[in-house]
Amino acid sequence: MNLKLYSLTKTKHMKNFIFVLIITTTLNYSYSQDFNFGKVSKEEIQEKFNPLDSSAPATILYREHKVYFNYVNEKGFEVVTEIQERVKIYNQKGFKYATEQILLYKSGSEKEKASKIKGVTYNVIDGKIVEDKLDKDAIFDNEYSKYRDEVKFTMPNIKEGTVIEYSYTIYSPFYNIDEIPLQFDIPVKKVNASVQIPEYFEYALKTKGYLAFIPKKSKKSGSINFMNRHKSGGHGLQVGSTSYSTSKVDYITNITTIDLDNVPALKEEKFVNNINNYRSGIKYELAYIKFPNSFAETFTTSWESVAKNIYEYEGFGGELSKTGYFESDIDELIAGSNDNMERAAIIFDYVKSKMNWNNYNGVFCDEGVRKAYKENVGNIADINLMLTSMLRYAGINANPVLVSTRSHGISLFPTREGFNYVISAIEVENNVILLDATEKFTYPDILPERALNWYGRLIRKDGSSLQINLMPTNISRQMVSISFSLDEKGTIEGKLRKQLTDNNALLYRKNFYGVNEDDYLEKLENSLGGIVIKDFELLNQQKISEPIIESFGFSKENAIDVIGDKIYFTPMLFMASNENPFKLEKRDYPVDFSYPKSNRYMINVQIPDGYKIEYLPENAALGLPDNLGMFKYNVASIGNNIQIIVSHEINSAIISPIYYGALKEFYNQLVQKETEKIVLTKV
């Protein structure tokens, strides 16, 4: 990870996201609330549930998020953020909201600081409000990462029904405004946000999420009083006198305020890349700074200027231009090869085998490519810029591609801070081949899942840039063949063979790499319903251009239901989908499957002697609109054998929320069919 923080000429890590709107509801409460710190009412503590969301484990009763600039003599402006929050906890699931984490950015000797931390826990005991104050010894300072510090505290004496309240202030030397969240994973009864910015700073205001709100704009006058020091007289060894004077500069402050009531919880379910992409909030992107009697310093205007700015940075373009440290090694590797794609494959495999990722992201090199190459370890930029440089040296048209990882968010607007990752791309015959050498088992156009985040930005030496689709279009396949027999005691015994391709294979190899086989088999047995595995075999673990093939024998006692003279069993056994992952009534954010995928199961069941088939499930075929997916279930019997073929495909990595209702019903029917039982009866 490489994070650049900006005061005058530097700017901190920022995120940009998709913007969509929905309408919120309002409700009048039966009791009045005083939101001044310490003015918690008995009615708030005695509230049993949120009247708008009875399933909520907790509710934010009030949140205030205030940002303003403060001028410090001889230092300049600092950004001040004040937070006050009051939370009602209804049950034990809400206890986690009694812990607050404050992340503080740092760059070199400059760092953000948190202070004025105070908190109180409120409970009603014997009809009276009892207060427990947050002890200073319960506030912990830690180094969270290379680029962030952490302040963390947990409120004392938490119970079901507790109300907690805390506040703190963050002082930042960086001219950056963190995203201001307006929506959380629990409901909010009232939220106030205000941002006050001196006229010297121009920010682009961006809204995100699903709440309909209109920021209110206003202005106010401000001033700065300077203390000026003057020296006079004195020469040689004689000490002169010092006098002081003051001067005043007036300026205008631009104010934005937002006041919302009854903000619904943003509820997360499966298949979402990063729920924060869709959380309602406001974001300020620093556009330029212009102080009196000085030129404006511009930060973001277009993708071309962003690309040019990044490329000219020494930790990016400067590192790309270095070749001396690897030339002799690459010359030896590609000697005798005149085919560019063959050269590219040789270099790609070489970097993957030689280099080790240190788990830090970043678009800029950390220690530099020379040191990384010598020590065989580096951050994302060290490794993939090194790869790009080597490919260019070999005469291949390679360029870096800026990426925002799934955990980092989606970057849709011109911004340098929206990217935290870089990969390499080869441009050939109107095609772009994507490469990431930070994982041992990646191969061309098969990227780690963390990098599969909508779009990246390819940047060239001339400063031009190109939007690149990062989402896979090829279907990653899982093909499973199962053959098993069952007896009248409920025991099953059989064999399984599974084949995985593309991203499925990459994920398997990554999870299996370096893991003890016995430990892996123990976890596999538990995940497959407690079966006993024998004769395990794994093929093509290192042959990454070939599918992964896993096979084993299995058995389990009491695996199926035997009731009287009947046997009931699900033919898909432990491979059946038992639960619909989609549970919300409505989903406003996309369904993200990471990549298109296909599952195909071919199952052969041998029924025990003395039994006949009483009931077989009917065949079924389902489809999603616009060819987004399909499900087929076919079953047939031949003598003492039952054959089942099940196919399930999702043809798009991202599915729009307009299809959510259809997708939810699709999975409802899929689960019903995969868990439907075959019934055998004794002859």
Descriptive account of the structure:
This protein is of the alpha+beta class. It has three domains: 19-217 and 254-297, Immunoglobulin-like (Sandwich); 303-469, Roll (C8orf32 fold); 476-682, Sandwich (Jelly Rolls), CATH 2.60.120. The chain has an eight-stranded mixed sheet with strand order 7-6-10-3-2-12-15-14. Strands 27-28-26-25-32-36-35-34 form an eight-stranded mixed sheet. Helix 5 (340-354) runs antiparallel to helix 7. The longest helix is centred in the middle third of the chain and has 15 residues, at 340-354. It starts with 18 loop residues before the first strand and ends with a strand. Residues 1-30 have low confidence and may be disordered.
Structural descriptors:
single chain; 683 residues; alpha+beta; Immunoglobulin-like; C8orf32 fold; Jelly Rolls; 3 domains; eight-stranded mixed β-sheet; 10 helices; 38 strands; globular; disordered N terminus
